[in-house]
Amino acid sequence: MIQLKHFTSLLVLLFLVSSCKENQAVKTTVKQDLIIDLNKLDNEIIQFQKLVTENKAPAAIVEQFKKSRLAYKKAEWAIEYFIPETARFMNGPALDEMELEENRSFEPHGFQVMEELIYPEYDSKNKEDLIRELKIFMSNIKQVKSTFEVIAISNDYVLDGIQQNVFRVIALGITGFDSPILQSSIPEAGASLIGIPKALEKINAANTTLPDLKKLTQEAQKYCTENNNFNSFNRAVFITQYLNPISKKIKAFQQEEKIKNVKKSSPLKPTAITLFDKDAFDVNGFVLSEDYNYTTDKAVLGEKLFYDKSLSKNSDRSCATCHHPEKAFTDGLKTNVSLNGSNLMRNTPTLTYASLQNAQFWDMRQLDLEKQSVDVIENTDEMHGSLKNIHAQVLLDAAYIKLFKKAYSKTAKPEAWQIQNAIASYVRSLNAFDSRFDDYIRGRENKLTDQEIEGMNLFMGKAKCATCHFTPLFNGTVPPNYAKTEHEVIGTPKDASGKALSPDTGRYLYNKMPQLIGAFKTPTVRNSAVTGPYMHNGVFKTLEEVVDFYNKGGGKGLGYAVDNQTLPFDALKLNKKEEQALVAFMKTLTDKRYQKN
């Protein structure tokens, strides 16, 4: 009996030792887990290449493509966060990457290029191109692994990277931005989220928020699995009931662990709890120097300058002449008129949310609002003023001197650059983020109608609007880094007859690259209900006309020769009910100040 007892005790001891060793064996760091995930991705790509090389059935090749993308999604948060330059060529748009400063471009690579080669039906004539893309992709995996092996991944970066990935799912993932043809975005969104608790457990598995966070991510993945149809997926429910709560739990984890925010210059504040916080965005993230940073005193001075007609040559025009505050700082005209009475070439865009872009004017010729203001003031067709003369006037005006001293206390007297900066600061004050949509998405009592919810889901889904007008700025500034504002070639008609393409070459005027012929900045859809007419030339009077144009596939869909069109030219196949719902949703983006209009 004694021997049996000792034998039993020995078995228990061996079991405990074995369990401890096993637990030690599986205990890994965030970095080690990333390397494991990258190896799994590499294996999926190798299998993908094998199927293509052996001329397997198209259905098997497409299925392996989907498996490979799902594997990528598990490591995407870290690849995008730490190595965005490489990520661009792993899962970026299938469009040329352009360096406008140097007038050169790079051909795209990665999943979206492969997607065009295999879908909707794989043709073996694309075999060599597909194998080439797969080899480039494997080379990029090798580069990513090498980078992760040598960099330090601290807890603050893990938190920041994971939170940004939730924002990426909202703004890019569930919209189909990175799966525009296959539309595999919904199951991929679930795959992107499920690893969040696992990464945070490496920091502290005993954190009290982790059980709730784990449950939320599991339920989010389940929701994606059970509702995986791209067109019918309810993004309103997914954001309000899953993604926003996940964001809040991640922030709660950070606060409980007392992990500091990453210090960086970014338009998206590190203090943002969700992507839809009223103060989530920092206009100073778009200025070129700290001297230009926004202050209320600068905005007060800028407002006075904005309405001052003495800024123009004949003292008969101010900035407000073309940017009426009651019309969300537009003028309601197709195009305004020049000083000599002729029509200007382009429509007056809204100044609301203009400060949350990396380029100004329809053709994006200026990088910031400071240069934009002086460009308009000194334009011979618009104000024909002189910054030098205005500066001289300001130095003789006691009221202005007082305001300048308050706004720029470090300088002895007003300087010319401060005039530009003050006007720009006033424009930076025009971002309210208080529309009915904002109230709804933050979980307030204000509800949207069923039609408006349908429109929201169409905007972020079937209608593909949000693949260019990114949520929640609804402009072309690309989330979650917001370091680049995109242009698009959509093939806008010349006039209401729709018989010809607009002759305006847009961005091409400043960068003679064929991809840029007819390229224009993607403006915000916020306040669009009160900022018509629309497009760079004001060709459309109503939002209904705009929706109809996109529904037909843009200029190419209308039969124009727009070989470089970046807008998908296939018809969206929206019915009238869906078109109306889309317009109804866009009207929910009107700030309170303009809702009566």
Automatic annotation (TrEMBL):
<dbReference type="GO" id="GO:0046872">
    <property type="term" value="F:metal ion binding"/>
</dbReference>
<dbReference type="GO" id="GO:0009055">
    <property type="term" value="F:electron transfer activity"/>
</dbReference>
<dbReference type="InterPro" id="IPR038352">
    <property type="entry name" value="Imelysin_sf"/>
</dbReference>
<dbReference type="InterPro" id="IPR009056">
    <property type="entry name" value="Cyt_c-like_dom"/>
</dbReference>
<dbReference type="GO" id="GO:0004130">
    <property type="term" value="F:cytochrome-c peroxidase activity"/>
</dbReference>
<keyword id="KW-0408">Iron</keyword>
<keyword id="KW-0732">Signal</keyword>
<dbReference type="Pfam" id="PF03150">
    <property type="entry name" value="CCP_MauG"/>
</dbReference>
<feature type="domain" description="Cytochrome c">
    <location>
        <begin position="450"/>
        <end position="590"/>
    </location>
</feature>
<keyword id="KW-0479">Metal-binding</keyword>
<dbReference type="GO" id="GO:0020037">
    <property type="term" value="F:heme binding"/>
</dbReference>
<keyword id="KW-0560">Oxidoreductase</keyword>
<keyword id="KW-0349">Heme</keyword>
<dbReference type="InterPro" id="IPR004852">
    <property type="entry name" value="Di-haem_cyt_c_peroxidsae"/>
</dbReference>
<dbReference type="InterPro" id="IPR036909">
    <property type="entry name" value="Cyt_c-like_dom_sf"/>
</dbReference>
<dbReference type="InterPro" id="IPR051395">
    <property type="entry name" value="Cytochrome_c_Peroxidase/MauG"/>
</dbReference>
<protein>
    <submittedName>
        <fullName>Cytochrome-c peroxidase</fullName>
    </submittedName>
</protein>
<dbReference type="GO" id="GO:0030313">
    <property type="term" value="C:cell envelope"/>
</dbReference>
<keyword id="KW-0575">Peroxidase</keyword>
<feature type="domain" description="Cytochrome c">
    <location>
        <begin position="297"/>
        <end position="431"/>
    </location>
</feature>
